[in-house]
Design brief:
With 267 residues, the protein is of the alpha/beta class. The chain has a single domain, classed as HUPs (Rossmann fold, 3-Layer(aba) Sandwich). The protein contains 6 helices and 15 strands. The strands form 4 sheets. A 9-stranded mixed β-sheet has the order 13-12-11-14-10-3-8-9-15, with helices on both faces. It has a two-stranded antiparallel sheet with strand order 1-2. Strand 11 and strand 12 form a beta hairpin. The longest helix has 18 residues. The protein is globular and about 70 Å long. 34% of the residues are buried.
Length: 267
């Protein structure tokens, strides 16, 4: 007999609760802290991780993971995190468990590009019956915003990008998504993939109870499904160094205009 997880959430204020199946998979990744010094090695073909502090990608943690946990806390269900990477990812996975995820999966492969990561996650999730697969809208180190859409394509599931809110009403999911110049209201009546943006939830700091329980929560390590990367890095390069600050006397606005037009090239 199949075991189902249910979310109990009010569909209107002061009305009866509506139950919907909620089994969620949250994709999390390891990212360098934004204060880290950026440098390259191996002839500028690899990111130099020496002395770098790694964190859970904020979009994955603050928005996708926390919102999934909030929904489970409201009425039951399960939240599983999934990460593509080696054992160096385990500390950030344990943090996700401390925040409130029920269990975790790590696909033991070196993440190289978005296509590879998406196909590995899709291969794992294809027969697990997840109701929602959540990703942050992008990673802060690559900013490609591609993995969520690729997972949806691989699994032939609807994709809702840049979601800022997620609620359930029976078997229907109601979302608000940011778009250029405004927002979209989206309704989904089946399992789907979403990417979470700012507004979905607020950052949550693990408490001592969560930190202690994370030590015993399941972290399953699985072999990769043999997916190869479709691209490779030829060379990394830092952006050009910023020039010195130029002070312009207030009595010479024409000089300021000239600098903005001829040197900064912004007007």
């Amino acid at each position: 007999m199949a075991l189902h997880h249910y979310l109990c959430i009010p569909n209107r204020r002061n009305t009866k609760y509506t139950f919907v199946p909620m089994k969620m998979l949250v994709c999390i990744s390891k990212s360098p802290d934004t204060t880290s010094r950026i440098a390259f090695t191996d002839g500028d073909t690899s990111f130099d991780e020496s002395g770098v502090q790694f964190i859970v990608n904020p979009y994955d943690e603050w928005y996708a993971l926390v919102r999934a946990i909030e929904l489970v806390e409201a009425g039951g269900g399960s939240v599983t995190t999934i990460t593509v990477g080696d054992a160096s990812c385990d500390p950030i996975i344990r943090k996700a468990l401390a925040i409130g995820a029920n269990d975790a999966v790590r696909i033991n492969a070196e993440p190289t590009d978005s296509t590879q990561v998406a196909r590995l996650i899709a291969d794992y999730a294809s027969d697990k019956g997840y109701d929602i697969i959540l990703c942050g809208k992008e990673t802060i180190n690559h900013n490609s915003a591609a993995v969520g859409a690729m997972i949806a394509e691989c699994l032939d599931m609807p994709y809702v990008p840049f979601a800022t809110s997620l609620n359930a009403d029976g078997g229907t999911y109601n979302l608000t998504c940011e778009t250029a110049g405004g927002e979209n209201k989206v309704t989904v009546n089946s399992s789907f993939v979403l990417s979470a943006a700012k507004g979905m939830s607020e950052q949550r700091i693990p408490n001592m109870r969560g930190i202690m329980s994370a030590r015993t929560k399941p972290l399953q390590v699985v072999d990769d499904s043999g997916v190869s990367a479709a691209t490779k890095v030829e060379k990394f390069a830092l952006p050009p160094a910023k020039g010195d600050c130029v002070l312009v006397d207030a009595d010479h606005p024409a000089e300021l205009v000239r600098l903005l037009r001829e040197e900064a090239k912004i007007i």
